[in-house]
Design goal:
MFS_trans_sf, transmembrane helix, cell membrane, mainly alpha, 58% helix, 8 strands, single chain, 734 residues, membrane
């Protein structure tokens, strides 16, 4: 991606001219044009080297900025189930919300190659970071404009309202009436406003991230020493890859805190993080990450538009082996100078044409070059395989925490901790291992294709046991385990028919002796409530339950999963599969770089990333969310509309979620198999051409040899005559 986003020929004047400027003059020039004050020092010799003229300091600042930016981008995925519960969203809507930041990013990323050579890159990076900060702050606005969270349809200021969840024989559906009275046009408008604000914030987050990585990479590559640039970019990517892991770690910490920690009700809450109604402080993570991005953005407004190119190579090897590159003289850089013939051959290279084109011309040229690149079979198959892999990663990153919560009855905090400590680090290790294998073994296209096929096959094999690592849903009184059906009062046990329980309330209790869960204490026939105080928390029990053997007591909260002990083996297999899939990352890039024409490499990598966004990172969360919604067996209702799902069919959820992942992995494996087959066919054709000479070429060679023989005989005859004449002259002289 660095090569695609690198602006070409941005240096004014002849090639290499800026390398001939003496250090002091260069510093004086930079200080005149690009210092924050815009004024030059009266005596350039008194200028001291500024830290903002150091490419090393830029690499340090950019690593921190990209780390903070990716931490914010990934934070929503770590708290997706919490946002669903807080605002009553379906998985399809939350998946669309998580993918919406790709919309603004994809719409503008193509124009980076056009504007890259015409703007002040550090300042534009800083402006993008400020926009990312505003997006993070905007994501927290729904928390502050919404009413305090009420987890059981009761008012915190009226403790006696907890009786609404009990079986009261003399009262008929009090909670239902109060719930209906709370539904108004203002409530619906506020809900739409909250959802609209979050979608707007996600769009701004994508737009703000457009200049950060492309301009940062091109700036480093332009002003770093040629031998140091790969090292700097490697450091940048290594630090950046820790961002997603830190986002899940931050989510793990924030979701342990109650959502209304800034406005806790008097007397506290009788709720634990294991309760299905628990909502963590999802908004606090956005404020923290937004603050980190804002701090990292400050230095970019002090970096110059251009700085003297780094002239010293970093030496980490032994002294006898460290050899610095010779200085580049004027006109020596042949890679930047092109003959007229070469320029005609590269006339379709959009990245090189971009600085000379207007916006309208750029838009007209892009589709033609795009179609020409997509006609390359290796490129197309590699992109399709990476689209499948990215679809798997996008679905996992968005909904794996929620899947773990539902399937194994663990808290959102613990689910994020497992992903941040296991899956993300092993995926990073897989990327590094893939790069090391390509470099150390010097793998060619054939072996890169074999490595990709092997990694995809092993990943698919490790995914197979996941279908069986889970258990069925426990029994829930009154709910049929058929997706799409709603419970009716006629399905509830007869023991609570006289209670007139509200159908829209949710305050689950569990009969641990029979592993039967009731939606509310009222549905269990409970008429009283007891709070047992224990150190650091309080436990709520319900007694006198007519539907429970012995009358209770029954604890508040859902029943624990019978297979919660399988969560660690499940995560180990998921993480190993992610590592093996990540091994294919670098070899697949090499297949593109070595498979397309030299003049198309930059654009090919850019098109690859664009297609991955459009075909994978944007639709995949929505597809996974829609698949999860089809497994819901009980939807909560809010003002007559379907809100968050309360219960899922666990077997159906596991089969469809893992099955969707399995489908994408099979697609990736099939693409890599076709790539390997094409490479073998091409290699076989090349060997055939090398071993079997062309008859036409043989005739041309024979004809040329026949022409050469008379010429050689004439030359030999002339030499003989010359020798005879020379001998006659000697004899005459004597």
């Amino acid at each position: 991606m660095a090569s695609f986003l690198r602006p070409h020929n941005w240096v004014p004047g002849p090639v290499g001219e800026e390398l001939q400027v003496p250090d002091k003059d260069a510093k004086a020039m930079v200080g005149t044009e690009d210092t924050p004050g815009g004024k030059a020092s009266p005596n350039p010799q008194n200028l001291r080297p500024s830290v903002f003229h150091s490419i090393k300091f830029f690499v340090f600042c950019h690593s921190l900025l990209q780390l903070a930016q990716l931490m914010m981008s990934g934070y929503l995925k770590s708290s997706i189930s919490t946002v669903e519960k807080r605002f009553g969203l379906s998985s399809q809507t939350s998946g669309l919300l998580a993918a919406f930041n790709e919309v603004g990013n994809t719409a503008l990323i193509v124009f980076v190659s056009y504007f890259g050579s015409r703007v002040h890159r550090p300042r534009l990076i800083g402006c993008g970071a400020i926009l990312v900060t505003l997006a993070g702050v905007l994501m927290t606005v729904p928390h502050f404009i919404s009413e305090p969270y009420r987890y059981d349809h009761t008012s915190p200021d009226m403790p006696q309202d907890f009786k609404a969840s009990l079986c009261l024989l003399s009262t008929k559906a009090p909670a239902s009436a109060s719930s209906n009275s709370s539904c108004s046009s203002y409530t619906e408008v506020r809900h739409l406003a909250v959802v609209g604000i979050m979608f707007t914030a996600q769009t701004l987050l994508g737009v703000g991230g457009v200049p950060i990585q492309p301009f940062g990479i091109s700036y480093i590559d332009d002003f770093a020493h040629n031998s140091n640039s790969p090292l700097y970019l490697g450091i940048l990517f290594a630090v950046t890859m820790m961002g997603p892991g830190m986002s899940y770690g931050l989510g793990s910490l924030m979701l342990r805190l109650y959502v209304d920690i800034d406005r806790m009700p008097e007397g506290g809450i009788n709720l634990t993080s294991k309760d299905p109604r628990w909502v963590g402080a999802w908004w606090l993570g956005f404020l923290i990450s937004a603050g980190a991005v804002a701090l990292a953005a400050i230095p970019y407004f002090f970096f110059p538009k251009e700085m003297p190119k780094e002239k010293q190579e970093l030496r980490f090897r032994r002294k006898g082996l460290a050899v610095s590159d010779p200085p580049v003289s004027k006109g020596e850089d042949s890679s930047s100078e092109q003959s007229p013939a070469e320029s005609l051959e590269k006339k379709d290279n959009l990245a090189q044409m971009a600085p000379d084109l207007t916006v309208i011309q750029f838009i007209k040229v892009f589709p033609r070059v795009l179609l020409r690149t997509l006609r390359h079979p290796i490129f197309l198959l590699v992109v399709l395989s990476q689209v499948c892999m990215s679809s798997t990663a996008a679905g996992m990153a968005t909904f794996l925490p929620k899947f773990l919560e539902r399937q194994f009855s663990i808290t959102a905090s613990y689910a994020n901790l497992l992903i941040g400590c296991l899956t993300i680090p092993l995926a990073i290790v897989g990327i590094v291992v893939g790069g090391i294998l390509v470099k150390r073994l010097r793998l060619g296209p054939m072996h890169c294709g074999s490595l990709c096929l092997l990694g995809a096959l092993c990943c698919l094999i490790l995914s197979t046991p996941l279908f069986f690592m889970g258990c069925s849903s426990h029994q829930i009184a009154g709910i049929s385990h058929q997706p799409g059906t709603q419970p009716g009062l006629e399905l509830f046990p007869g023991c609570m028919e006289s209670c007139s329980c509200p159908s829209d309330d949710f305050n689950p209790v569990c009969d641990s002796s029979t592993r039967v869960e009731y939606i509310t204490p009222c549905h269990a026939g409970c008429t009283s409530r007891v709070v047992q105080e224990v150190p650091d928390k309080s436990q709520v029990f319900y007694t006198n339950c007519s539907c429970v053997a012995g009358g209770g007591p029954v604890p508040a909260g859902s029943c624990d999963s019978a297979c919660s002990h399988l969560v660690l083996p499940f995560m180990i297999l998921i993480s190993l599969g992610a590592a093996l899939a990540s091994v294919t990352h670098t070899p697949s890039f090499m297949l593109i770089l070595r498979g397309v024409k030299k003049e198309d490499k930059t654009l090919a990598v850019g098109i690859q990333f664009m297609l991955m966004r459009v075909l994978a990172w944007m639709p995949s969360p929505v597809i996974h969310g829609s698949a999860i919604d089809t497994t819901c067996v009980y939807w909560a209702q809010s003002c007559g509309r379907r809100a968050v799902c309360r219960y899922y069919d666990h077997d159906l959820l596991r089969n469809r979620f893992i099955g969707l992942q399995f489908f994408f992995k099979i697609g990736s494996l099939a693409c890599f198999a076709l790539i390997l087959a094409i490479l073998r066919q091409q290699d076989k054709e090349e060997r055939t051409k090398a071993t079997i000479p062309n008859p036409g070429l043989q005739q041309q060679l024979l004809a040329s040899e026949a022409k050469k023989e008379p010429e050689e005989s004439r030359v030999l005859q002339k030499r003989k005559w010359f020798r005879k004449d020379k001998q006659l002259d000697k004899d005459y002289t004597k």
